[in-house]
Amino acid sequence: MLTLKTEIRTKADKLENIRKAGKVPAVFYGKKEASTPISIPKIDFLKVWEEAGESSVVALETPAGVKESLIQDVDLDPITGVPRHADFYVFEKGHKVEVELPLEFVGVAPAVKDLGGVLVKVLYKLKIEAMPKDLPHNILVDTSSLANFGDQVLAKNITMPPGVELKEHPEEVVALVSAPREEKEEEPAPVDLSTIEVEKKGKEESEEKPDETKPSEAKKEVPPA
Questions:
Q1: Does pTM top 0.90 for this prediction?
Q2: d(CA 73, CA 80)
Q3: Could you give the strand order of the β-sheet that contains 152-154, starting from the edge strand earlier in sequence?
Q4: How many structural domains are present in the chain?
Q5: Rounded distance, CA 178 to CA 180, Å?
Q6: Domain edge (last residue) among 75, 94, 113
Q7: Which residues form the Large ribosomal subunit protein bL25 beta domain (predicted)?
Q8: What is the pLDDT of residues 83-99, one digit of tens each?
Q9: Cα 44 vs. chain centroid, distance in angstroms?
């Protein structure tokens, strides 16, 4: 089991100082576990997070004893992608937990390989329930049964690992194969040459026509005295 050493932090501990010290602010809580703020060495947390993800049991070593938990949520810095905060869910020993596990698509769909279809992944996580010790890292989805356009993999079609129970709706579509889109070439609209000639002719006539509103520049005749 993966293990992390933790330190209890108080409200007086500034998060900025904790991060500068190379630690990740975190909190653990559960159905029968009060919310407790902690801090964890960042290097250790990154190693465990990479291996455990959000589906493997992580033992938190605390002053109150070992707390078996799951990484519930990780807040990342939007610029650097470095974890800024982590939530751990402490489950009751001897009880099943309900979580969402990531899906890994395996196999080759004949409708994609032979017919040029497109594999559409509808779901990327699946709700399951299991004892903490039986939790797999992910759920495998075999797409090799998709032989024709429109074929689907439903939640009920996925083989669950031992000790794992599906909690997703059985008829939920997980993946399907769609036919490739046919791109139609757009024909250019015909050009009406007669319209262009009429417009040009009208323009020439307007340019040749004298401006009747312009006052005459001719000299007025002076009547004889």
A1: no
A2: 17
A3: 118-121, 173-178, 152-154
A4: 2
A5: 6
A6: 94
A7: 96-181
A8: 999 999 998 888 899 98
A9: 26
